[in-house]
Amino acid sequence: MKKVIYFKMILPALLLVLLAPGCRKKFLDTVPDNITSYKDVFTSKKMTEEWLARCYFPIPDMWDQPYKFPWACMSDEVDNTWETPLMNSGAITPDNATPKNWDPFYQAIRLCGVLIHNIDQNDEIRSQPAGEELLKQYRAEARFLRAYYYWLIMKQYGPIPILEDVPPPADADHQIPRSSWDECVAHVLAEMDKASEDVPVEHMNPSNPTVPDPTQIGRITKPVILAVKSQILLYHASPLFNGNTELADFKNLDGKQLFNQTYDANRWKQAADAALAVINTGRYSLYKVADNNPFQAAFLSYRNLFWDGYKVEAIWIRSATNSRQWEQHCAPRNANGEGYSGVSTTQETVDAFRMSNGKKINEENSGYKETGFTTTANNYYVSGTSNMYVGREARFYVNVTFNGAKIPVVAASGQTVVELFRTGNSGRDGSSRNWSTTGYTARKNLHPNTDFRNNRIQARPAMMIRLGEIYLNYVEALNEYDPGNPDILVYLNLIRSRAGLPAMAAGLTQEQMRREIRLERQIELMYEGHRYFDTRRWKVAGTEAYRQYGEFHGMDVYAGTSLSDPAFHKRVVADIRTPWDRKNYFFPAPQADRDRNKQLVQFPGY
């Protein structure tokens, strides 16, 4: 088994464990190599702490895109040049559905359960100063992680079987029906509340207990638990899970209904209260960069958030991330060492960004122009760039690489401008497979110093939950429960202000505010794994306004021989996805698991 590097106090650089590819097979083993029983593990401090590190290992890496974390490619955010997700093509079945998270997360649940029910044997830890408290803390961390993995399965698959608290033998004959959605949520929240009793507010430096310990980044704390509860309760209040009569036929074999059929408005209050509890910790702030140019300040604040801003804005962090996977697949081919240029932002997503004056592109006096080319240049694009990309809000230039954009990473010699037209330096003609299908590529979290040829990748953690998301959780829940509450504008405008947009004025109806909040969420959290789930929990994925099916558009990547060639700059169909079907709300349970567990009913439609 690969050596695991330990925390300071527990396992000092958990990030190495979280990333080490050679650990995955061993992680799935019931007992580590050369160990004959759980007693051998849990009477040893070293082995117990190693086991705890393994409990953290399955936490998903949100930037391991587009394959292991493919949610952006399965939403309207991007098209994947190299393969069509089965959810998009309609070819998804219980035998082939990817990403395959059912079994791995259940294995993680069992791993956490083993620690919870065996750690009391560890007299070596108990004999240390504050040893009993340390045992409680380790157990609490595993308890939270076990509940968190249940939550991840629930997001993807809906109501699921909740296993016995004491892990059964690995070869046990599991015949366990799905619990209802409400039962699943109640179980997960109760477990998280119990875990919260024994984890710290922050992990402090043992040599100086007045300051946080930077080596403990990513470990579970009370604010982390509050933040995850905010996510869960927001989903729980949403239309997909709250009085959803469309899914009245989803029942267990005994007729038990798996979704509550009665809408409960109080769930939105619970979601708002949960988000406010995170805000009221007072431990986090929106990251901002000062600059004499307000637009540049907004640009840098949002861009640098992903490698500097986590220090003030992140609530939960994955301590290491495979950012190169994301950066190289998104970067245009004129990057030094070659990007793959194939995480292709859709025209629908491009059109969602406002103008710098805060107006939507189709609003009167927005200043948006569909035709013509600019004769000016700035930090974001060169002269000759299409007017479609001129005067947009700052987050547009962080999120989208377009024809004429300045390259987001270190450029190949003399190629600082991205050309996505057919014969351009990153166009279709230059590669058999590494080219954008839409004439755009994703740009967020691409570091300007990334140099593929010289293998210079800026190490940074991944923000799993940040304060910006919590603000958006709060205003969404408030608008549903208490429309007109002044906090809605207060916290929504904090997000807009950081983005360089003018404050939104009062006077919107609840429905108008709902649309604004959803748009703000789409833009602020782009590519961060939310859009796929948001459009489903709102039950709008099958509507024209939030369409996750049918035709998606881009520029004509089969045309164009110069930067300002009008032949390239025309909207064409870039991808056609399967018509929306009710079954697309959730993934199918794996058929192999249903073959073993006869009580496991399939989601309707599969």
Automatic annotation (TrEMBL):
Matches recorded under SUPFAM superfamilies: TPR-like
What compartments host this protein?
Cell outer membrane
Domain SusD-like N-terminal: where? Answer: 26-203
Which cellular component, as a GO term, is one annotated location?
cell outer membrane
Q: Which family does it belong to?
A: Belongs to the SusD family.
Its main subcellular localisation, reduced to a broad class, is: membrane
Q: Which residues form the RagB/SusD domain?
A: 320-606
Q: Which UniProt keywords apply?
A: Cell outer membrane, Membrane, Signal
According to the record, the signal peptide region is none
Name recorded for this polypeptide: RagB/SusD family nutrient uptake outer membrane protein
Recorded hits in InterPro entries, A to Z, give: SusD-like_N, SusD_RagB_dom, TPR-like_helical_dom_sf
